[in-house]
Specification:
Structural class of chain A: alpha/beta
Strand order of the largest sheet of chain B: 1-4
Radius of gyration of chain B: 27 Å
Number of helices of chain B: 5
Oligomer: heterodimer
Largest sheet of chain A: 6 strands, mixed
Helix content of chain A: 25-40%
Strand order of the largest sheet of chain A: 1-13-12-16-14-15
Strand content of chain B: 5-15%
Distance between the termini of chain B: 99 Å
Chain lengths: 528, 193
């Protein structure tokens, strides 16, 4: 557990810690961060996946042909881990179907397709201006109803995170945005620092932390100034200027930089008394509580040399990427083959369908040109140089993880704490042999998860099989017992009726049968 | 005399040790063969009977008694490898007589065609089919092990074995492709420094 007051004292003295490893890839932020966040025209169709967060999806509460208002919930659920999705604008539900997902696999998932009517008619939730007099549960309920899940990248339901079971020492607001190219958090801090501050105030009221720290990377001086101005009359908020290094914006890395403490690899930040929110999430919380608006849009960075007009835009959730490429004035001539990366260059993934929608965790579309995107070289053997181990921010041994993942020796990979890998890509970035290390880790991780799921399923099947066998055996025994009892009862009844009578009957029957046989025999003889 | 003393001493010793052994045989009795349990834990529990035994547990018992370890098609190479590790033998390729390793499937009943005969319910080793006489039957997909045993008894052939659908949750990175060719590549290396 950290001591918040100590931490704040150190930060005000300008003392920060460092995390192991890290890399300094070229920033490329100036490509997109010079112009204000652009409000763009609505696309022709919005593709809203019903699940955009970590957890369970709700059930759909609209039908095809139904008119919906902007901000109207499309799904509903009683499950605490379900976060609703909302209509991003007013219009008609034209289809509920399977649509390519904003996921590395691009596999289809259930998506509600809305055709905007052009009016953008809001359906607002009641505004809560005096949130200080509201209790925690009402505000949490509102955060959940507004569909807010972490906008930083993981998409964890915010209302779950905001209801910690342990006391919170430090509330940390993450404005680091360490990945190259991306500038959506930068722009939102510059332009909406005051609303971010309001979001922080709401979080403070709910969580009641000892200290609040806003962390901004030192390559965003304008954002830093804006945040400082917004917090100028609030001395309880500490602002930390964090040196630029990738991945300083990782939750665990930032906590280490600010507090000098490491989050246990099998634990959560709350275990050492920290809770972290992205600046965009704070903005959305203020929107939900103070304006009654559900989460229907987010800032997306459109960047890369293949766009003639790189910029940040307010994209409605569900906007297909082809619409955003048009906004960014995409020039296909500048690319060798069409390629769009969703997310940043370090942790993003290539999408191969231009109808893939923007979802709650989409922070960037990177469209690199020929020069930015040289041919990928083939993987060469590992030369044991150790650069990856130097670069790993989680203090792991990427080489060992690589060998064991490649050989599918997952128990050994787990012994080297594969689970603690944050998949930041720093190791792959420095690898001179061009080994796609993160691919191997992701594959190993999903294999391990898959095996565990199979194991659980087979355990359940075994249980069901054994229960069935036991039931069949019990049924059989019960049946036999019943037959035995019935036979005994018959026997008894026969004896009671008078054994001689019954015996006579049997004897008579036997005699009849004998006579019949004898007669048949005689007939046969006669015929011969 | 010495001979008799020796015999008596040895006899007494034999009795004492016999007593101890007899006592411990009762006291520390192992109910089932733990090896069988271990083997059973490795087997995929589809209860399909393709190995020639009526279920996974009987096959586990057979392996413990020296049967081959390569008769389980649903488990495939992975299971054979694990069994080989456990039994301390060399892994063998899957015995083709018992079937081939296939992608994972589950049963679906074409409900419009079901006549409600309950034959498949009786065949299902894990009670994954619900229904009653002259009522439509359906498969509880989450419980179905894909054992195929319900297909043959169906008099109207209304049961299909369909591959389990891949979802973003179950999808895996395919490392067989070289990077840059497939969906979902992480472009780290492609950005010029």
């Amino acid at each position: 557990m950290i001591d918040a007051n100590n931490v704040v004292q150190q930060i005000t003295k300008g003392q920060l810690f460092d995390f192991a490893g890290g890399v300094h890839p070229p920033q490329q932020k100036s490509l997109s961060n010079t112009t204000p966040i652009n409000t763009i025209a609505e696309p022709e169709r919005l593709y809203i996946p019903v699940k955009q967060h970590i957890g369970v999806q709700g059930s759909i509460r609209v039908c095809i042909g139904q008119n919906v208002s902007k901000g109207e919930p499309l799904t509903t659920s009683g499950n605490p881990f379900a976060v609703p999705v909302h209509a991003s604008t007013s219009g008609m539900v034209v289809e509920i179907t399977e649509h390519p997902s904003a996921h590395p696999s691009g596999l289809p998932e259930t998506t509600i397709i809305i055709e905007p009517d052009g009016h953008a008619q809001w359906q607002l939730m009641p505004v809560i201006t005096d949130y200080f007099s509201e209790d925690k549960v009402t505000l949490l309920e509102r955060i959940c109803q507004a569909g807010i899940s972490g906008l930083g990248g993981a998409g964890f339901p915010t209302h779950i995170k905001t209801n910690p079971q342990k006391p919170v020492e430090c509330l940390i607001i993450n404005g680091i945005e360490c990945e190259p190219y991306i500038s959506s958090d930068d722009r939102i801090m510059r332009e909406h620092a005051w609303q971010i501050k309001q979001g922080i105030n709401i979080l403070r009221h709910i969580i009641n932390p000892k200290q609040i720290i806003i962390a901004v990377e030192d390559n965003k001086p304008e954002a830093m100034d804006a945040i400082k101005t917004a917090c100028i009359d609030d001395t309880s908020i500490t602002i930390a200027n964090v040196p630029t290094k990738y991945p300083a914006g990782g939750e665990r890395q930032l906590i280490q930089v600010l507090t000098g403490e490491e989050v246990p690899h099998d634990g959560l930040p709350i275990d050492i008394g920290c809770l972290m929110y992205n600046v965009g999430t704070c903005y959305a919380i203020a929107d939900a509580v103070l304006h009654g608006k559900a989460l229907v849009q987010r800032v997306v960075t459109l960047t890369g040399q293949a766009l003639k007009a790189p910029q940040n835009v307010w994209a409605l959730l569900g906007t297909p990427i082809h619409h955003l490429l048009t906004v960014g004035d995409y020039d296909p001539q500048r690319q060798r083959s069409q390629k769009v990366i969703m997310g940043g260059p370090m942790m993003g993934f290539t999408v191969h369908n231009d109808l893939v929608p923007v979802v709650k965790i989409t922070n960037c579309l990177l469209v690199p040109d020929r020069e930015e995107l040289p041919d990928i070289q083939d993987e060469r053997p590992c030369i044991r140089c150790g650069l990856c181990a130097d670069a790993c921010p989680a203090g792991l041994l990427p080489q060992q993880l690589f060998w064991h993942s490649k050989a599918k020796e997952y128990d050994k990979a787990q012994a080297y704490n594969l689970d603690a890998c944050i998949e930041c890509g720093a190791c792959a970035y420095v690898c001179p042999s061009e080994i796609p290390l993160v691919h191997y880790y992701r594959k190993a991780k999903s294999d391990i998860k898959h095996q565990a799921a199979e194991k659980e399923k087979s355990e359940k099947a075994r249980e069901r099989f054994e229960t069935r066998q036991a039931r069949l055996l019990a049924d059989k025994q019960a049946r036999e017992e019943k037959h035995r009892l019935a036979a005994e009862a018959r026997k008894k009844a026969m004896e009671q009726k008078g054994g001689s009578d019954a015996k006579d009957k049997i004897a008579a029957a036997l005699a009849r049968a004998k006579a019949k046989r004898a007669a048949a025999q005689t007939n046969k003889d006669a015929e011969e | 005399m010495t001979l008799i003393t020796a015999l008596i001493i040895l006899g007494v010793l034999a009795l004492i040790f016999g007593g101890i052994l007899g006592y411990s045989a009762i006291k520390f009795k192992v109910d089932a063969d733990p090896l069988v349990e271990q083997i059973d834990a490795i087997l995929p529990q589809t209860q399909c009977g393709q190995c020639g035994y009526p279920g996974c547990k009987p096959y586990a018992e057979a392996i413990a008694n020296g049967d081959e370890i390569n008769k389980c098609p649903p488990g495939g190479e992975a299971t054979i490898k694990q069994l080989a590790d456990l039994m301390g033998v060399e892994p063998k390729p899957l015995d083709g007589d018992h079937g081939v390793e296939d992608i994972k499937k589950v049963a679906y009943i074409r409900e419009a065609e079901c006549i409600g005969c309950t034959k498949c319910i009786q065949a299902c080793p894990v009670d994954a089919i619900i229904g009653a006489s002259k009522q439509m039957h359906t498969v509880i997909i989450d419980e179905c092990t894909g054992c195929d045993l319900c297909v043959a008894p169906c008099p109207v052939d209304c049961i299909d074995m369909l591959p389990v659908k891949e979802t973003p949750k179950t999808w895996q990175w395919d490392l067989a492709h070289s990077p840059g060719e497939q969906l979902g590549d992480i472009p780290i290396k492609q950005v010029n420094s």
